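To make this tangible, this section ends with a sequence with its structure tokens:
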Amino acid sequence: MTVLAHRVDTLTQDALAVLQPGFEGTTAPGWLLRRVSEGLTSVGLFGRNITSPEQLAALTAQLRAEREDVLVAIDEEGGDVTRLEVRGGSSFPGNLALGAVDDTALTRDVAHELGRRLAECGVNLNWAPSADVNSNPDNPVIGVRSFGADTHLAARHTAAYVEGLQAAGVAACTKHFPGHGDTSVDSHHALPRIDAGLDTLHARELVPFKAAIAAGTKAVMSAHILVPSLDPTRPATLSPQILTGLLRKELGYEGLIVTDGMEMNAIAGTYGIERGSVLAIAAGADAICVGGGLADEATVLRLRDALVDAVREGSLPAERLADAAARVRALADWTRRNRTQAPADARQQEGSGASAIGLTAARRALATSGAAAAVRRPYVATLTPVANIAVGDETPWGVAAELAALVPDTASGVYPEGAVAAEVLAAAGDRTVVAVVRDAHRHPWMAAAVAELVAARPDTVVVEMGLPRAEPAGALYIATHGAARVCGRAAAEVIAGVAPGA
């Protein structure tokens, strides 16, 4: 434990305590360790900080040498959004796949195994699950991150996920309150607006959050969305009516309220991160998430000083900041008391024991139509849309690598937005085309390419790894309900005609 070289006043400690910043690198920089020793209670991890479970465990141990109860947070939804396996793809299918299976015991087991892996690496707060009801199929940022468009299905699986994750000693952070599923704008880029009335919100958006609260979720993440029926002027993250009036008072939630990333343009582009952070704490938020894009000491100091100045100027009550800091420290204490560290020799490889649960779930989530003989000379054409920021473009997806592992004579190509069927056909030659798409219903160029491929080659296999809204096409159509690595493996097994586990 580092001995403080100078005294940090209580106000400054409280301002540091409510921040959840990121950083660059795979070891903790000196500035971060100094701030942890001064009162910073949380650190956020992203894909850039992780290379292996062993490295991650060493990093979290380095942080805990400064502060035993530090909250180490991560955005690990599994499925399309993974930081733990950012370079290889997730061992767990995402929410839509789990919702498609609709077995809450399976969802609970998947979340528990994911939590076990996080806890083993020293991570104790997961910014998951997404409780959003994906009522808008054209939603550009939620999609397969939701359990589905059915409110009550989303609610029961949200609760199961919270229970499984927290049973492993990792705090769940249910998001994005009061519900991001009916948006047509990505809040990373602009401020979305939901015009649903109060009756609709209570019957649809809020139901999964009520289930999460009943299940004991330790944290809830706010959404940067404008909901005029709740607050006509401020987005949820900055709204006292939504965070304090609705979440705290009406729904009776007593846990930690965390903001979504404050550098997202919905806040940074309209209020700025300093003013936005002050307004968020004043509105009832307890922790400021920042660091996905701004990951340096200067950002931490800017936000710390903005909070301290706001208290001294009277625009932020000192009691509100102190209450927020106390809630952060209470969660940190819960994680310290509930830490579950598996012995090193308990680590399991995929395909054995509990860790096989992700692939099992991915196999069960497949939906197929049509029939085709096992493909022996496939050409995998991956039609690639621009990835949203939440998913990122670092993580590989598709079926090409998994199919090549089963069928050595596999060729493949990647086709970005604007590609046409003629390019694929020319590259495929006499091979069987396997067209892999992601949300084909949202991308006219992709839908057109698939239609032309099937018309030219009726034996084409189509694999939809996003939201399966387009009509099934091809001799064999496979919907994986997500683009995790295990989803690709499950689809490859069907295409290759091999028994699961072979």
Q: What stands out?
A: The radius of gyration is 23 Å. The chain has a mean pLDDT of 92.
